[in-house]
Amino acid sequence: MAFARLAGADVAVMEIDENRMRFVQENLGVEHLIDGRGDAEAQLRAVFGGDLPLTVFDATGNARSMMNALGLIEQGGSVVFISLVQDDITFPDPEFHRRETTLISSRNATSVDFARVVKTLEGGAIDLAPWLTHSAPPEELIDEFPGWSQPENQVVKAMLHF
Question: How far apart are the C-alpha atoms of 33 and 87, rounded to whole Å?
Answer without folding.
Answer: 28
